[in-house]
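Structure in, sequence out. Go:
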């Protein structure tokens, strides 16, 4: 009895799984850049990298870069934070 239920659940997962995975891909926001469509997150990521260089410049200018902690964590986290904020601000 338990084996039959497990088999049916496995079959259902095989049928419904790919559909559920692809469900979120139906309406991915994209923008037109010189005739080619790019996902919005790529544009936000590129802008966030540039903004992070600006943050680094400001930290170096005011001599407070050593106060932010491990730089190997700070700058990638800054890129992720700015990417998410840009996406939420402009495209959500």
């Amino acid at each position: 009895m338990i084996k039959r239920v497990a088999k049916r659940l496995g079959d259902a997962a095989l049928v419904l799984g790919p559909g559920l995975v692809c469900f979120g891909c139906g309406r991915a926001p994209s923008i037109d850049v010189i005739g080619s469509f790019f996902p919005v997150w790529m544009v936000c990521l590129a802008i966030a990298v540039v903004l992070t260089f600006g943050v680094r410049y400001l930290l170096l200018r005011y001599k407070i870069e050593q106060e932010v902690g491990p730089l190997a964590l700070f700058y990638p986290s800054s890129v992720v934070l700015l990417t998410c904020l840009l996406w939420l601000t402009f495209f959500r």
